[in-house]
Amino acid sequence: MSDEGTLTHAAGPGEGPVTMLATPIRIDYEFTAGLAQSRFLKGISEGRFLGQRCPKCQKVYVPPRGSCPTDGVPTTDEVVLGNTGIVTTYCVVNVPFQGQAIEIPYICAQILLDRANIAFMGLIQEVPTDEIRMGMRVEAVWVDKKDLAPSMASVKYFRPSGEPDAAYETFSEYL
Amino acid sequence: MAPRRPVAVVSFAQSHSVRREEEHNDVEMLQPVIVDVFQKVGLTKDDMGFVCSGSCDYLVGAPFSFVAALDAVGAWPPMRESHVEMDGAFALYEAWTQLQEDDIDTALVYSFGRSSMSELGRVLTLQLDPYYLAPLWPDPVALAALQAQALIDTGRYGEADFAAVASRSRRQARSNPHAQVTGDHSVEELMADDYVVAPLRRHTLPPITDGATAVILAAGDRARELCERPAWITGMDHRIETHALGARDLTTSSTTRQAAAAAGLLDGEGEGAAVEVAELHAPFAHQELILRDALGLADTVAVNPSGGALAANGVMVAGLVRIGEAASRIMDGTATTALAHATSGPCLQQNLVCALAAEPAGAGRG
């Protein structure tokens, strides 16, 4: 895209009124992850999930944002979470869209890691789309150790862990 | 307007003002300020009748960034909460208006701004009219330079007057632990600075600042319980001028004057009321001169004892800090009357004026 705006004239330039004006805008930003998310991303680059616990309500947030959104107090205690969790809810993506990186159909799920009190979104693989279900136990599959980086791309996807499904009551609070 | 119900600033907190906050995200930058403002009066968010914030998504390049920032307060159980995409001073105005109703007694007002994440000059250009001005990308310094030149052309002030404002601001900022730009420089020294955009030399520009601030307002007896010397808001108003810069007289500030009159800060002859302290949000040195004239301030008024926006200019923050600083002079007993001013938009387009006193409006007056 050109940096200059373009003018569209009703007739040729200099004749008739301007009917359209395009003014392209581009601004670049340098993002600051913050202390809590930096810790989380460092954990990811070491192949593990790090959460933080609220000292007041004891809930564990992952990824942590440094504050309990319920109590508004700093979450200072770090919690190392395991590699397994529960599919609380999911969606099978059948619709192609621009920039799609994964072959359809695929499963996008909310995953509640064990000991965590908030679910996050993840990709589910190695299971037929008609077998995915709420309560399914899953485990994270990581990229090769040499490819680990401070990015969620280090988690390739989640897959069934083979454990029995979790009871609905154990995750109903997180839907 | 004048308040129907006495409302006061009872607590004020601010972060350090820094050129670039590298470690903390918005929530982590804001949270210690929220903790501090509550601790000063022994309250928690559960005591707040209303919460209002001011911030700008364009600064961080993220939509609804103010919603994420609520994590610093904690929004459960559900609270009465609002946000303005403006300086926190305008959020305070909304909270003050809410407090005029009788069903709440307290309000938390906060604002935060990280100007370092992008090119601030380009970001602020996007607030201009999108057809005639924004496509030309005139940054705030260029627009302020046009204003400064117009002011020089009136014959009222010259470049040395701008330098005198900067010299005094930096000197006063030395006693402000939150200031970013401080120093002891004579007018002659400052006049040796290069032009950034003529006639504006380096010292006439505000610093680029990351920071956060918070204020607690309380009404009536609640304010007296919480604070030994509440800073009562005796009047407050804000007015806006046209977005068309060419249609404005940039050398005066008509809306500051209108807001001051409505806030009870001009007497019958149009002279400025006798306040002891004035905290003026003048991001550029020459704008302080325009504001002083608009407000009719006497030479005896202590202007910007904090150092003002030339010492720290957190976008979305500096206006609310002016109210907090002016209120602090009353709360700490160094003044009995003060005024605070906040601005928004290019070349002082929108202006808010807040009158503060050690006694509520009506008390001890004829």
Account of the 3D structure:
The complex is a heterodimer of chains A (175) and B (366). Chain A is mainly β and 175 residues long. Chain A contains one helix and ten strands. Chain A has one helix spanning 35-45; strands spanning 6-9, 18-22, 49-53, 60-61, 77-81, 84-93, 106-113, 120-124, 137-142, 155-160. In chain A, the strands form three sheets. A five-stranded antiparallel beta sheet of chain A has the order 8-7-6-9-10, with no helix packed on it. In chain A, strands 4-3-5 form a three-stranded antiparallel beta sheet, with helices on one face. In chain A, strands 1-2 form a two-stranded antiparallel ribbon. In chain A, strand 1 and strand 2 (18-22) form a beta hairpin. The two termini of chain A are 42 Å apart. The mean pLDDT of chain A is 91. By secondary structure, chain B is an alpha/beta fold. Chain B has two domains: 7-120 and 208-226, 3-Layer(aba) Sandwich (Peroxisomal Thiolase, Chain A, domain 1), CATH 3.40.47.10; 136-206 and 232-357, Peroxisomal Thiolase, Chain A, domain 1 (3-Layer(aba) Sandwich). Chain B is built from twelve helices and twelve strands. Chain B has helices at 26-39, 57-60, 65-69, 88-99, 120-125, 140-153, 159-173, 187-190, 220-226, 254-262, 285-295, 318-331; strands spanning 7-14, 50-54, 81-84, 106-114, 195-197, 200-201, 210-219, 231-240, 277-279, 302-303, 337-344, 350-357. In chain B, helix 7 (159-173) crosses helix 11 (285-295). The two termini of chain B are 18 Å apart. In chain B, 58% of the residues are buried. The mean pLDDT of chain B is 95. Chains A and B meet through helix 1 of A and helix 1 of B.
Can you give me a brief rundown of this structure?
Chain A is mostly beta strands and 175 residues long.
What keyword list fits this structure?
heterodimer; A: 175 residues; mainly beta; 5-stranded antiparallel beta sheet; 3-stranded antiparallel beta sheet; 1 helix; 10 strands; 6% helix; extended; B: 366 residues; alpha/beta; Peroxisomal Thiolase, Chain A, domain 1; 2 domains; 10-stranded mixed beta sheet; two-stranded antiparallel ribbon; 12 helices; 12 strands; 31% helix; globular
